[in-house]
Amino acid sequence: MGSTFSLYLQIQQHLLERITSDDYPMHYQIPPEELLARNFGVSRMIDNQAIRELVQQGYLVHQPGLGTFVTDHQAESSLLDVTNIDEEVRRLAFTSATAACWKANPARLAATRPPP
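^ thats the sequence. predicted structure below, dont judge the formating
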């Protein structure tokens, strides 16, 4: 068939196309690994790798004993995207100083927020 790498990417691409086209809408349970492996003619280890990566990317969530489900893949950001906490705080309309003073003086924090 192909290398293990290309097979896992084919499965991943197939699932991602289904998710982004809403064939698999949010909360949809994707087919079990056994079925995907059979349909693609691969081992479960290969399709598991594709699924694990989509879980890490935030497209799927695995719930042991229940299955793997499509998530709200339009989330704001993942933990992997946050490289500088100061930038993330500023993006959320705070400054590092206002975030730090929240416990000390909540009224001051409210006064420093930009208007809506």
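The chain has two domains: 4-70, 79-112.
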